[in-house]
Amino acid sequence: MTFQPPLSGKEQDETEEFRPRFDSNGLIAAIAQDTSTGEILMLAWMNAEALSKTIETGRATYWSRSRGKLWIKGETSGHFQEVVEILTDCDQDAIIMKVNQTDAACHTGRKSCFYRRIDGTSRLIKSE
Amino acid sequence: MTFQPPLSGKEQDETEEFRPRFDSNGLIAAIAQDTSTGEILMLAWMNAEALSKTIETGRATYWSRSRGKLWIKGETSGHFQEVVEILTDCDQDAIIMKVNQTDAACHTGRKSCFYRRIDGTSRLIKSE
User: Fold this and answer.
1) CA distances (Å), B39 to each of A40, A106, B68, B77, B105, in order?
2) Is the separation of the CB atoms in B59 and B73 below 8 Å?
3) Does A116 fall in a domain?
4) A76 CA to chain B: closest CA distance, Å?
5) How far apart are CA B20 and CA A35, in angstroms?
6) Which of A55, A57, A98, A128 is a good FRET partner for B2, with 20 to 30 A between their CA atoms?
7) Domain range enclosing B36
8) Which pLDDT belongs to residue B121?
9) Number of domains in chain A
10) How far is Cα B103 from Cα B81, in angstroms, rounded to an integer?
């Protein structure tokens, strides 16, 4: 799958064509949200190939910036994300995937990567 | 407010100190989520100053990449985001703000910026 380039301004906001806007590193932000609870599970990155594979396979596939490679979520852990629906935002530089998450989304073993709340200034409170 | 630098690996995952990891452009991804419905409203960016101001004022403040300036959400539209809670993720390169959104989060006038669903391949379906 290849993607058409983004349009500008209001055209991009209102088009009914998917024209993802990749950043200068060729990446788009991808939020995984639990489709049943609405809980945000993680935020990661996709290049065009990862985005293509996610759409085609129905399994969330990211680009690992630290490892510099494509990364099928769950390929080693078994913690796959089955994609139910994908939304994009006004300027199409981010997507939300509503997913069915097998077990934990976070590599620490927690359901969500967002397990710490900022307390006032510089302290974090763990939710679990 | 100044932030301490991130730690590495598991230390960063488990620390109870807020040590945000800004990217090579000095930015962190910030997701605004409606605190009552769980709907994701928008994704934007913060530099250290924007993050500081958000924490200190309780009003979501971003860094506008296109305009190259600090941007208090609602300063021109009146569509402020009152921050109820802030969460960060395992490696602390993203935050979620649970917010009370005045009127619309999106500059198009829609409640959420994520108003289009990707239909199969390259088409978008508007939800409203």
Assistant:
1) 10, 21, 28, 21, 11
2) yes
3) yes
4) 18
5) 28
6) A128
7) 12-102+112-126
8) 75
9) 1
10) 9
CATH number of the domain where residue A88 is located: 3.10.20.810
Report the amino acid identity of residue A38: G
Residue A2 lies in a domain: no
Question: Could you give the CA distance from residue B8 to residue A66 in angstroms, rounded to a whole number?
Answer: 12
Which of B13, B87, B107 is opposite residue A117, by nearest beta carbon? Answer: B87
ipTM: 0.96
In this predicted structure, what is the pLDDT of residue B48? Answer: 97
pLDDT tens column, B98-117? 999 999 999 999 999 999 99
**CA neighbours closer than 13 Å in the CB half-sphere of residue A92:** 28
Chain A residues within 8 A of B115 when measuring between CB atoms: 87, 90
Residues of B in contact with A15 (CB under 8 A): 124
Please check whether residue A118 is in contact with residue B86, taking contact to mean a CB–CB distance below 8 angstroms: yes
Domain for residue A78, yes or no? yes
Other CB atoms within a 10 A radius of the CB of residue B93 amount to: 19
Min Cα–Cα distance to chain A from B114, Å: 4
A114 touches chain B (CB under 8 A): yes
pTM for this model (two decimals):
0.97
pLDDT at B128 over 80: no
Tell which B residues from 45 to 64 touch A, by Cβ distance under 8 Å: 55
In a domain, residue A69? The reply is: yes
A89: closest CA of chain B, how far (Å) = 4
**How many beta-carbon pairs under 8 angstroms link A with B?**
115
